[in-house]
Amino acid sequence: NRVSHTDSHSLVSMLSRYLVGCNTNAIFTIAARRPTDIRGYATSTKSSNGELTINLKPHLLHNLKEGPATSSTTNREELLDLFKQMTLIRRVEIAADGAYKQKLIRGFLHLYNGQEAVATGLESALTPEDHVITAYRCHGFLLTRRCSSDPKLILAELFGKKTGCSLGKGGSMHMYNTARGFWGGNGIVGAQVPLGTGIAFAQKYLGKPNVCLTAYGDGAANQGQVYESYNIAAIQKLPVIFLVENNHFGMGTSVERASATLSFYTRGDYIPGIQFDGMNVLAAKEVGKFAKKYALEKGPILLEAMTYRYKGHSMSDPGTTYRTKDEVDGMRKSSDPIAQVHFWLVDNGLATEKELSEITESIKKTVDEAVQFATNSPWPTKEDLYSQVTTDNTPTPRGIELTNP
Description:
Largest sheet: 6 strands, mixed
Strand content: 5-15%
Strand order of the largest sheet: 3-10-11-7-6-5
Radius of gyration: 22 Å
Number of helices: 12
Shape: globular
Distance between the termini: 77 Å
């Protein structure tokens, strides 16, 4: 039978992804290689004092003799807190999805559904004095406990309203919380990596005991500016944590088609690296604790979170032309980060289904109120176009003649 060029290309891509999925050195790549029951995803042991120890998948290490803990001891209080944070992120993204389809949100919108464990877990290891910078899929980082941004301000910004966290001028890709050291939200692919390196330089220059978590996606991992940042960070031993959120697709292109090597955590060469399970919030927490300590004591470290986004690259991408519905559903069923915490709580008698359902409904109500707030908020005025162009303390430049004699 004749096979078209498009069909043969798809077959090659599918075969490539299958072979990579069979790679025993990878933590995970495609849904078909994952366990089908989320309860078997990680084993746990409950102690008499109510603490719960979760055994994690082994982390993969590069240029490190020892790595993060391969188990995490937690309790009801922490798990409920992580459950609430991730559920809030998920509900805000669901609300944004609906509002976009109603044309209440315009322009670009990149959702974080499925990747909540990365931001929540890593930020739990940081303090409000630390710094974070990321790409345009940024809403999740703003809604963590460390950043503590009000969902009303997030949704108002998405709606383009004056009450938004960027006064309606930034939109989905340019959100900030400078009081908590969150520097965006950057729309240019990879541009935040040298900026995050510079923030880390400032911490060392000023003698502050803080790090900068500098996140980017697998689609940006081949940018030249990333490697320039690695170089200066290593030379200066800067307290920077480079983070690749590997959700397996740069827009609609799989990493197998776009990258000559898939081990992004080794890309720093002279910079130590760790690949970890980005669908497990406790794995992210343990890796975050290790990475912060390492960065403060020895310099830059490179993390690769193996995660997965349920939605398309942006709202203009249905996310179905380059992967199957079964693959997405398989990831939801086997590895959903919120469902994992749900099962740890319920299966170990730390919470009831009713309790978690009530928490979810309460968060949903909070998000519904935030949507209403955003809907009723005022638009920026024409005068607002000329505000925040310069800071109040801008020095007066030397006189320059702008007209010809």
